[in-house]
Amino acid sequence: MPKSKAVKREKPRERFSYDPNKVLSKLEEYGRRVLEDIKQGRNPYFDIPMRGLGNVYFDERRRVIRMGDKLSRRYFLNVAHARKFMQTLLIMAYVKRLVSENKHASLREAYYANKHTIPGTKENTFEDQRESDPIIEDLERMMGVLREEMHLTADRRGYIYGDIVIRDGEDEFNTSKLGMGGWAVPGTVEHLQFVEVNVDYALVVETAAMADRLIEEKFPRKENALIIATQGQASRGVRRLIHRLHYEEGLPIIVFTDGDPYGWYIYSTIKQGSINLAYLSDKLATPEAKFVGMTMDDIERYGLKNVTEKLKGIPPNKKGGPTGDYKRILEEMEYPWFQNKEWQRQLKMALKMGVRIEQQALANKSLEFVAKKYLPEKINNGELLP
Amino acid sequence: MAEASQLFKEFKIQSVSEFFRRNAAMLGYTGKIRSLTTVVHEAVTNSLDACEEAGILPYVRVEIEELGKEHYKVIIEDNGPGIPEKYITHVFGKMLAGTKAHRNIQSRGQQGIGISGAVMFAQITSGKATRVITSTGNDEIIEAWVKIDVDKNEGKIVKKEKHPNPKGWRGTRIELEVKNVRYVRSKQGVYWYLKLTAIANPHAHIELIEPDGKLIVFPRSSEEVPKPPTEMKPHPRGVLTDDVYRMARKTRRSTVRRFLVGEFSRISDKKVDELVEYIAALRLIKTEKDKKVQEQLYERLAKGEVKAVLRSFRGYTKVVKQVAKLMEKPPEKLTWQEAEEIVEAFKYMKFLAPPTHGLRPIGEENIEKGLKGILKPEFVTAVTRPPKVYSGGIPFQVEVGLAYGGEIPSGFELLRYANRVPLLFDAGSCVTTLAARSIDWKRYKVDDLDRAPLVLMINVISVHVPYTGTGKQSIANVEEIQNEIRLAIMDAARKLQTYLSGKHRRLYQVKRRKTFEKYVPEIAKALSVLTGEPEEKIREYFISYIESHFAAKEAQEVSENA
């Protein structure tokens, strides 16, 4: 039985939707269109949504960062485009083979697999991974298909621990029965199926050290929570997993980071998405996520003043300021999704106090403090920031 | 003290050779290298002129044989009309007695000293007679050894032989033995001279056998013999008092009026009436005491207000009548004074530009042929400007040729000509050099002139080329001539620019095309994976698309340039 009152599991809003045939048919469709153009004596091209700040906006209604509709057209018969046009097709063909053979490749593997010298020249198809990675991003945006759906994975980062049963290919396991280290989140989570979900909510934890602490204190079992360790900025796999758990399983998402600009930014990307991956916000962002801490209020409330650290950089009222942390805070205050009383208050307090506070600072009270008192108190009382 | 008659005799003996020695520089016999070139020049020029006048495509062969230290035999043979026996002494022996002096005509040679000067040079350096072998194509070949009798300024045949001519050979071969000269393959030497001559005379086949036996051929590249120049009547703006005075003496016309209308170009009866008014006005102005007023009157006259000037004098009609009478007297009665008045009046009058039919440009087509044939460039162009006038009445014409790339080594080369004759010396002070250097070559896509594979040839044509100094190797910086040269160069340079930018564009297109083509195999492979169509077919689609694209682009360019 769920213990918490404030945080409740909701009804699922999305269904598991991964379909390799969708990717394959899209690839074929684009390929056929290029072929048709060239047969008709037209200059073939790809329309690729533009990247960068200029083509990103905040969708107020859905409360996520989204990509605009500015397109850049990549032609074959254009000296400046021809190489990228060729690279795009190369990666597309590669993805087709990966998906149809049900194999996965890392970005680095994709780079090496497609790198070779063009016959009769001294030129390579790809000179650097910095050439192939953007092409893959282009494809994601162009086809509206996730890199993971194209079986292209990044390095894995982050892990989960809690009473849920996952089917990953032929394996089925409970992530609370894999030892204290939990289950490492793979680069691609598309193919995962959630067989059983016996938790009330997911607690996203910034640092591995804090996640380990909570597992050791048996917090997941006691609070009926799923621990998701992001290990710094959340990887795409982790963000996608959070998104899926929230929308497919109705799990409330609560984020627990350091009380500093970087922690708040991690929260911001989980919640609203990022500028870089704005085109994926619909699949990666979880606008309903809430923030448990650390907050500036915690410092006074739990008497943590002596375990705070000074913010880095020069404050805005000092000569040469603002820089470093101060500057980041001021930038975050401008974010549309931080335009609410609670967050503005937190951010102002941080500026005024000139301090930051880490999750681990709670250990100053006692090792059990965070698991036994801090988190249960705040979560069950619903003392969360939007 | 020697007797006067003795002195006089010695003086007389030395006169011509003394003059010649003293003026060797003026005739081109200065320096060991240049002297040899001058000998060859005189002979080759004679050959070319003779062929042209006879309408024969010239074949000229020059052979330089080394006999000893600074001692050479120079042999020049042509296929010209040949020299009739009785003219041999005349051609080779008389100085200052050519057919061209005092004719208002464009010519290669100048004072008719030419070949006799060479004979004289051979004689005074080696002591040898010049051997002449010639035939007009009849049944005999004449072989004669010619010397110049300096006493009488006359050619003298030392020895003569006649040979049968069974094959009907026609032409002239002369052999001169010269000392105190040197054969060097330098820019002032025979080789370079003949090369330049060949460029400006594409209708001539020229061969050179160097002292070491090496045969060099400058082949003919045009089959068209240039028409010989025609004589032109002098233009009133280009004559001196002396010309008018002497011409009046010689003419067979009955009155000064007839003489002026008949012997000058651009003078009509109406112009003579005008001339009468101008002379009258000038006479009257000279009577004016006030210098300031006089100045003003001259100015007004220059503006053409001759009638107003006349009317400002009381009783001017009397003076006009007096002058009018002058026009009706026999020309041989014309005084120096009167000739002077006429020439002065000419300066104030307006005349049509002089006729230019006497000028004989090489022609754009032939310049291109000459440059192409000798230099083997990748690009050649030529510009012949319409005739212009300098100093108020001397017609001249400028033509330039530009050759670029191909076998031309890098480094700018200027080939200068006056009336088709190569100028080998004094390049620095020549108006052609100044004009060529004053061009902003960068504007014409020639980024570094001194490293460009570029040959510029300039030919200045005139009945009277204004040379600097007596060497006749450098053209004076006359503003009108410089402007014409500049315009001609710029015109030619524009064509070069079009060529160069077209070439750059074509290179760029090829490069572009390659950019696309190199990706085709990759694209075809990938598209084949994506669509299942055979790779080979896809490749064909792309290649034919690229081809049609560039073909369309080329067609567009052609129509733009047309």
From TrEMBL, chain A:
Catalytic function, reaction form: ATP-dependent breakage, passage and rejoining of double-stranded DNA
EC number: 5.6.2.2
Topoisomerase 6 subunit A/Spo11 TOPRIM domain sequence ranges: 201-379
Origin superkingdom: Archaea
Enzyme active site: 112 (o-(5'-phospho-dna)-tyrosine intermediate)
Residues noted as binding Mg(2+) in the record, renumbered to the chain: 206, 258
Top class in the EC scheme: isomerase
GO biological process, one term: DNA topological change
SUPFAM superfamilies, A to Z: DNA topoisomerase IV, alpha subunit
GO molecular function: ATP binding; DNA binding; DNA topoisomerase type II (double strand cut, ATP-hydrolyzing) activity; magnesium ion binding
Protein name, as recorded: Type 2 DNA topoisomerase 6 subunit A
Organism: Thermococcus cleftensis (strain DSM 27260 / KACC 17922 / CL1)
Lineage: Archaea, Methanobacteriati, Methanobacteriota, Thermococci, Thermococcales
Gene, per the UniProt record: top6A
From TrEMBL, chain B:
GO MF term list: ATP binding; DNA binding; DNA topoisomerase type II (double strand cut, ATP-hydrolyzing) activity
EC number: 5.6.2.2
SMART domains: HATPase_c
Catalytic activity: ATP-dependent breakage, passage and rejoining of double-stranded DNA
Domain Histidine kinase/HSP90-like ATPase: 31-182
Keywords: ATP-binding, DNA-binding, Isomerase, Nucleotide-binding, Topoisomerase
Keyword flag Nucleotide-binding: yes
Binding annotation for ATP: 46, 78, 99-100, 109-116, 472
An individual GO BP term: DNA replication
Database matches in InterPro entries: HATPase_C_sf, HATPase_dom, Ribosomal_Su5_D2-typ_SF, Ribsml_uS5_D2-typ_fold_subgr, TopoVI_B, TopoVI_B_transducer
UniProt function note: Relaxes both positive and negative superturns and exhibits a strong decatenase activity.
UniProt family annotation: Belongs to the TOP6B family.
Oligomer and partners: Homodimer. Heterotetramer of two Top6A and two Top6B chains.
Protein name as it appears in the record: Type 2 DNA topoisomerase 6 subunit B
Gene that this sequence comes from: top6B
